[in-house]
Design a protein that fits this description.
The chain is α+β, with helices and mostly antiparallel strands. It is built from 3 helices and 3 strands, in the order αββαβα.
Length: 83
């Protein structure tokens, strides 16, 4: 199992400027949702954005500590438009 803080640390290790919010979707500490706002996403399509995030948590997924991670990714401008 992996904690939300550990997931956040893995993501921020690859994207230090990221604002990250993690939610446990099932209470089992292996199915999470991450909302991430980062300048690293600028100029990338949604697939590339998600690949960037999954690259940061790959070891946790490969080990089975993290079973599923739903992503919501935004550039700072996109996030500002969300209100």
């Amino acid at each position: 199992m992996i904690s939300p803080d550990q997931i956040e640390q893995l993501i921020k290790a690859k994207m230090p400027d990221a604002d990250v919010a993690i939610q446990d979707l099932t209470g089992t500490q292996d199915h999470y949702q991450a909302t991430i706002v980062s300048t690293s996403f600028e100029g990338l399509n949604l697939v590339k954005q998600h690949q960037l995030v999954y690259g940061s948590v790959n070891t946790a997924m490969a080990s089975g500590d993290l079973h599923a991670l739903t992503l919501k990714t935004f550039t700072p401008d996109e996030w500002a438009q969300q209100g």
